Amino acid sequence: MPPKLKIMADKNFVAINYITCAPEYTERFEELFGSRARAIDTMPGFVDMMVLSAAKPGDPYLIVSHWESEDSFKGWTNSPEFIEGHKRGFEDIRKAKEEGKPSPMHSDFKTYNVLAR
Questions:
Q1: Helix (H, G, I), strand (E, B) or coil at 96
Q2: For the chain, which domains are there?
Q3: Is the distance from CB of 83 to CB of 7 less than 8 angstroms?
Q4: pLDDT tens across 68-102, in order?
Q5: Residues of the chain with pLDDT under 50
Q6: How far is Cα 28 from Cα 67, in angstroms, rounded to an integer?
Q7: Among 14, 10, 11, which residue's Cα sits nearest to residue 111?
Q8: In the chain, what's the furthest Cα-to-Cα distance?
Q9: Phi and psi torsions of 20, nearest 5°
Q10: For 67, 80, 102, 117, which has the most beta carbons within 10 A of its beta carbon?
Q11: Dihedral of alpha carbons 91, 97, 98, 100, sign
Q12: Going by C-beta distance under 8 Å and a sequence separation of 6 or more, which residues neighbour residue 8?
């Protein structure tokens, strides 16, 4: 029987945001990330982030962020910097809703503890 993996105690919390974009919104979405303020980079407990585009059109983008702890990640999502950093995308969603259109993107966060490297 293989040994049981232990959850490692530090620098091992990962948040993945799966973002599905309407085809006509992908260019705008990539523009938003290309011109981001990088506020996350200065947040306590932030380790690294990757923005991945799918090899297959229509599959979600993945925003993979690594944190020292879940508390550090929650600090980011509850911060004024988070709101500011997402303001343009939130505005796009609000505008579509006001116009009676579907949201141009949908976000689904999942969080993970790293078991092994």
A1: helix
A2: 21-113 (3.30.70.100)
A3: no
A4: 999 999 999 999 988 888 888 889 999 999 999 99
A5: none
A6: 27
A7: 14
A8: 58
A9: -100, 125
A10: 67
A11: positive
A12: 113, 114, 115, 116, 117
